[in-house]
Amino acid sequence: MFASNTRNLMRSSFLQRCKSTLVVAEHNNEALNPITLNTISAAKKIGGDVTVLVAGTKCGPASEALSKVEGVTKILVAENAAFKGFTSESLTPLIVAAQAQFKYTHILAGASAFGKNVLPRVAAKLDVSPISEVIDIKSEDTFVRTIYAGNAILTLKSKDPIKVITVRGTNFQPAATSGGSGAIEQAAAGDYASSLSEFVSQELTKSDRPELTGAKVIISGGRGLKSGDNFKLLYDLADKFGAAVGASRAAVDAGFVPNDLQIGQTGKIVAPDLYIAVGISGAIQHLAGMKDSKTIVAINKDPEAPIFQVADIGIVADLFKAVPELTGKL
Amino acid sequence: MARVLVGVKRVIDYAVKVRVKPDKTGVVTQGVKHSMNPFDEIAVEEAVKMKEKKLATEVIAVSVGPAQSAEVIRTAMAMGADRGVHVEVPQAEYELLQPIHISKILAKLALDEKADLVILGKQAIDDDANQTAQMTAAVLDWPQGTFCNKIEKTDAGLTITREIDGGLETIKTKIPAVLSADLRLNTPRYATLPNIMKAKKKPLKKVTAKDLGVDTTPRIDIISVEDPPVRQAGATVADVDALVAKLKEGGHI
Predict the structure, then answer these.
(1) Is the complex ipTM more than 0.95?
(2) Residues on chain A touching B129 (C-beta within 8 angstroms)
């Protein structure tokens, strides 16, 4: 019994020492995506070494930025034409190879369209059950995430030897972008080109406004706006705040704005300092994406709209009168 | 392409406000309205459309879950699926089933049924995992087209428009492939009464995970399921001036 206790003790201290996390960086070959910084903070919460993998056709800008990020021990760089478009079919074998070489206990990425696409494929190749969009890390194997559109909070313990996790960016502070001294190393070379899929093109929504998921203030419009043209009212108001503009599913489905502005269970999750919901009723699915905002303002003509149940400040008024008036008074 | 496999999940209806069980083991499902996961309706619609365009010869609807999961397979058949496969899992075991298990089951069925395409919803609105399609593709070593906004068949394979964070992206994949439907892929049809009646006569095969050789050993322990923190309801203000004053008070302007 004594022997087995000692063994368990040794085993647990061994595991403790060897805890190490691989963060898969998200970037566009020009700049690091900020969600990677939030993910690095989550990795630090787990403890142990933090390595960040940068894969792409051009890795210089992201890896240089990462070498200064506080808490990053090592940056693994894989620059290769195979990673054009960051397809999961090419990235998965690279991540699996890095895992085989360095035996990470945790593999993390931000819960963005990129992370959601790639990490489950990696997890399946490692035969482990991935954990999506964690909002908190209790210990190295216990994680918190939301289910049912944020209406229940699940705390789970993973039994798998490798934890593959996506991280909800808004629940972790971004890591400091200075003060770090991570070493840049080349990832093991390999033939990662996949014939299964091929990136063709991207059609990105151009905007001078801040990116939705990182914005401090968001003005969001719903069905009540009645048309795409009327969104101009929100853009004018957003200009006063330097805010990003978001939308409910109804506004996207009606074609008022592009899909990448959708906030909610199946769109983006945001938690700005100030969220102004204009002409949005506040369906469960929309609330899932914004109810962690610090201050919520609702402008709606229906006093019964569910959005008023979560709003800190509400005004029952016609948005076509109230919004221009508000813009004028700021 | 010949055969399309569509995965459908029975979930608590999207309009229901879920209640957490007092013992914190899960949410109350008994006596609560269930229906097909909304993203899966879109997946079924796309598969049926492919058949109508003669791009597919047969659509097979699959659901993994307890006895009641057969209902969503019938719904899929009423929408136009030709036949169904119900992988029956007892309720207790089902509660700890994860996308990793489902993906292995779907991959096995895709091979057994000689499917050329597997279409799934991008996420189930209960566990919000957004994993099953990606994992099924990995198990099969097939390409994945996730968050599909548009799917076009070409001579060489598929051209897919995907919904990504900054806008849209186009990729090409080979066939066979696994696809996951986003909300804007299509508008699902309603099953008409005659089609609901006809669906009752369509073949529905029952198998177990064991029959398929898939190990369903739990990969997680549920520690707790709790209510989210409740937001303090605020006050409504009378006019825009009062709103501006409040925003000033809060330091927002």
Answers:
(1) yes
(2) 130, 132
